[in-house]
Amino acid sequence: MKQWMMIWALLGCTPAFAFEFPQVTDHWLREAPPNARMLAAYAKVTNTSTETLTLTGAFAPDFGMVEIHKTIEVDGVLRMREQPALALPADGEISMQPGGLHIMLMMPERSFKVGDEARICLIYADKDGNEHVQHLDFPVLKK
Ligand SMILES: [Cu+2]
């Protein structure tokens, strides 16, 4: 390819602002009984960019409904609250783990056992409000 063609192709295909996805580590889906109507997934999401992001939700092809939840104690009772917008500052992280923040997966269309993977997609908004979707495969673990 001639050099000018390469430059042209790059200009045409690359957005002016190259979005840098957060690093996702320790992501897993907790194994549940086959008839469970709700499953929980966890992950550590680290923003390695210099821009503040917001985690605005998630979706998963094998589930009818997905929300980001936080488990909180109200008058001695554990309740879950939806978190529609979690700030993820530059160099900051969101740590989802049992007893705290989690991805709540509802209306499963199949069962998951240890050894399976579940596709879960995280949705971020950048500082301009543009949406970016990160597709991830969460291994199913028994913990
Ligand atoms: Cu929940």
TrEMBL record:
Signal peptide boundaries: 1-18
Keywords assigned: Signal
Pfam family, one: PCuAC
This protein's name: Copper chaperone PCu(A)C
Coiled coil location: none
